[in-house]
Amino acid sequence: MLGQIPKKIFSDFSCFASNKIIDDVKVFVKYKDDVKGTYWYSKSAIGYKNGLEIEVFGTKGSVLWTQINPENIILRKINGEKIILSRDIKLLSKRYNEYHQFKAGHPIGFIETMFNLYLDIYKTLKNDKKNSNLPFLYNMKVGYNTIKFLNKLNISNKKQKWVNF
């Protein structure tokens, strides 16, 4: 999401269930320019429903998006001001207009996402582009780095120490 590749990774896996399946993963990541990240994946966090939350903190504020409330992004400014941005096609960049087949608030997000993914694959194949610049389509390098990231999580957990990416 930040367009950066980690420099170092530390992870810790836990098994809280009786079947010894890993159900809680905590990850700490160091990026360039002293940027740090924390990831938490859990199936055992009591009180949390299945869902995804993404929060990014910067020097001037933060941004929060939650799967449980997918139509809104919450901006928090350094002065304490809180702004809620709702998805509305009119507010989006014209570049993304073609990716919205349904009006804001329509509960069809997963199907729309699959439509957009396959549309970008089609456009890439039709135009025979090796390096696509389409927002819903990733290249082999991104796929490789994702698998490498997951592998480094496993290595770090086994060694219980920071590992280089």
Keywords:
165 residues; alpha+beta; 4-stranded antiparallel β-sheet; 2 helices; 8 strands
Describe the structure concisely.
Helix content is 24%, strand content 27%. It is built from 2 helices and 8 strands, in the order βββββββααβ. The mean pLDDT is 82.
Describe the 3D structure.
- With 165 residues, this protein is α+β, with helices and mostly antiparallel strands.
- The protein has helices at 109-127, 140-159; strands spanning 8-14, 24-30, 36-42, 53-57, 61-66, 72-77, 82-86, 163-164.
- It has a four-stranded antiparallel β-sheet with strand order 3-2-1-8. Strands 4-5-6-7 form a four-stranded antiparallel β-sheet, with no helix packed on it.
- The longest helix has 20 residues, at 140-159.
Count of DSSP-assigned helices: 2
Rounded average pLDDT:
82
Overall shape: it is globular
Give the percentage of residues in beta strands. Answer: 25-35%
String of helices and strands: EEEEEEEHHE
* Tally of DSSP β-strands: 8
| Strand order of the biggest β-sheet | 3-2-1-8
> Uncertain spans, ≥5 residues at pLDDT below 50?
none
Q: Distance N terminus to C terminus?
A: 17 Å
User: What's the Cα radius of gyration?
Assistant: 19 Å
Secondary structural class: alpha+beta
Main beta-sheet annotation:
4 strands, antiparallel
Helical residue percent?
10-25%
Helix-strand layout with pairing:
Elements (H helix, E strand, L loop, with lengths): L7 E7 L9 E7 L5 E7 L10 E5 L3 E6 L5 E6 L4 E5 L22 H19 L12 H20 L3 E2 L1
Antiparallel strand pairs: 1-2, 1-8, 2-3, 4-5, 5-6, 6-7
